[in-house]
Amino acid sequence: MAPSGSRSIKRGCQRVLYWIPVLFIALIVAWSYYAYVLQLCIESIEDTGEKVVYLLVYHVIFIMFVWAYWQTIFTKPMNPLKEFHLSHSDKELLEREDRGESQQEILRRIAKDLPIYTRTNSGAIRFCDRCQLLKPDRCHHCSVCDKCILKMDHHCPWVNNCVGFANYKFFMLFLLYSLLYCLFITATDLQYFIKFWTAGGRAHFRLKEYLNGLPDTQAKFHILFLFFSASMFSVSLASLFIYHCWLVCKNRSTLEAVRSPVFRHGTDKNGFSLGFSKNFRQVFGDEVKYWPIPVFSSLGDGCSFPTCLVNLDPEQPSSPTGSNPANKSAAEGRQFPSKPLRESQSRLLTSTPSWSENETATDKDRKGASNPGMTIENEA
Ligand SMILES: [Zn+2]
Ligand SMILES: [Zn+2]
């Protein structure tokens, strides 16, 4: 009993520690609110028009930023559907086999009815030992969450959550609004920063108070520090945001950018790319009005992803993921999922865009053939 008790205490402590980065961000944001609204706008800016405009714009960005951050933190990552979990009998069967090859045989039989196109580096079926399931494409086991996460991007300590299919849009909006937040503060704080810095405060400042004593020394500290921190955060957020925009355009997760997904015919970093417009809509959805707000509008179910490669692979079962319009009839004879695709996903698959960009990209980047090894992947 004792070891499991101490393990649960350790896990409890870990869970508390994981919230520290979130708390740190929350404190910085709370302080920045105080410094900007109270110290800069209300205390230091004397022009009423300027004050009102700054406060209005600031609050719009602030609300969107906090909303997106909240959604990124508290949206539960999605886990694979029960179709991907081993049945009781399959588990027993797998346990009885001790050779990797026979285990792979069993897994391959189960995978036949599922829309799984990616493999391990050695060409084996991707299986999670911990969760006892066949990993859907783009799904990975997160060792921090101790779960398989659909379309896992990365585990982000700053939101104490896995960024994946369920909250990737929120994460993108969080990056966008936090960047706007920092840029807006930097831009509007700049002139006051310069005035204080050069200590030549003219009309706008209560320079007398500043020179005479405490109150504006305090304002000075907040305004200077606000400018430094906002401009520094702007630089790091901008680089992260640009990187993730690039990933969205290419339809890659961070994990896939580090290690390209392996299909049956070999690795292909553009295996899930459907062209810019569709890649973008896969994350942000079809309806423009939902793009800027942190409500879920991504397309698909997170378990299966359209890929332009399916019809290149003669061994693939007819599947829902034929993205080529010519492949539509094959897709109609699919075995999975048993319930119809959500309307949003069907739209993503069947509308007829230009495929030329996509096809040339995949031809160019296709490399190497998979090697039919027989190991069971365990990324935990
Ligand atoms: Zn797992
Ligand atoms: Zn995680």
TrEMBL record:
EC top class, as a word: transferase
Superkingdom of source: Eukaryota
Membrane-traversing stretches: 16-36, 52-70, 170-194, 221-243
Any one GO cellular component localisation term in the record: membrane
Entry EC no(s): 2.3.1.225
Record domain Palmitoyltransferase DHHC: where: 125-259
Topology of the protein relative to the lipid bilayer: Multi-pass membrane protein
Annotated segments matching region Disordered: 314-380
Catalytic activity: L-cysteinyl-[protein] + hexadecanoyl-CoA = S-hexadecanoyl-L-cysteinyl-[protein] + CoA
Keyword annotations of the record: Acyltransferase, Membrane, Transferase, Transmembrane, Transmembrane helix
Places the protein is found: Membrane
Bias-annotated ranges (Polar residues): 316-327, 346-359
One term of GO molecular function: protein-cysteine S-palmitoyltransferase activity
Keyword Transferase recorded: yes
Keyword field contains Cell cycle: no
Protein family according to the UniProt entry: Belongs to the DHHC palmitoyltransferase family.
Domain writeup: The DHHC domain is required for palmitoyltransferase activity.
Name the record gives this protein: Palmitoyltransferase
Source species: Oreochromis niloticus
Gene name as annotated: ZDHHC2
